[in-house]
Amino acid sequence: MSEAWAVVLLVGAFTIAFKGAGPVVLGGRALPEQLSNAFELLAPALLAALVVTQAVGSKDGIVIDTRLVGVAAGVVAILLRAPLIVVIVVAAAATALARLL
Amino acid sequence: MTSSYREGAKRLAILTPAAFSFGAAFGVLAGTEGFDPAAAIVMSATTFAGAAQFAAVTVLEDGGTVAAAVAAAVLLNLRYLAISIAIAPDFEGSRPRRFVESQMIVDESWAISQVGQGRVDRRVLVGAGLVLFPFWVGGTAVGALAGDVIGDPARLGFDGALPALFLALLVTQLVDRRAKLAALAGGAIALVLIPLTPPGIPVIAASGACLWGLRRR
After folding, report:
1. Is the confidence at residue B165, as pLDDT, over 60?
2. Count of beta carbons in the 10 Å neighbourhood of residue B59
3. Where in chain A are the domains?
4. pTM to 2 decimals?
5. Which residues of B touch A62 (CB under 8 A)?
């Protein structure tokens, strides 16, 4: 088996198990209130971390590059209450343009 | 299809061009890394989580081992374990049905189906995932099969669009002071850990910021 297929099958199996674990094992049972209070904060915490890692992260640590131009353009679009697809297109275009210059 | 599934499909529709493009970008990248097109397509259909797929391929590209590539992707996807436990109460019906529907959990479908208190509207989530899936897998197929024609995905600015996408999703989550503090903490944890840990760890560690919510409301 090639390295690629090994990665594909292992990552796929883990991910399917992760996604299924809650709904299959716990089903419709409610969680303790304390726990759901914590999970409530999972979305903002993880999304903020994803913003940071995708904007300046790399395998060599923090890297400042043209991605930040895209993020800045995206921020402007968000402040102008642009729809999500506009935010994405504006950010991609700004990143690509900055890279050309 | 009830109106709720349709609502999810409708909300996700605006993201389909982006999903298709990211899928194509993944297909191209995987192709340059020696993945045959079938492997890239199967990965998109089973893992169905962009960031982890990019991470796995990137680690192999950098000369990492299979174990390192799998570890990076699995760490990134550990958040789905937390998410699936958090929203487990929202799933109903038979076990096989809950299993199949749970596979539609992805960042985007989860983010747009939030109903507050960390819970989701399951029908909206599943409807959104069902719309996203063919675009993600189809994009991957196009990228994997026609990679030479498309060229370098970074040239098109996808890498700058990804953080902007997550930022736009984050803004909708900042509903109160607790959420804002959790976001600040999560972002700060990630920033500090990026230079210190392998890719994947900063995002997992940042999820620890939600433990602060255990204290009180």
Report:
1. yes
2. 25
3. 1-30
4. 0.75
5. 191, 194-195
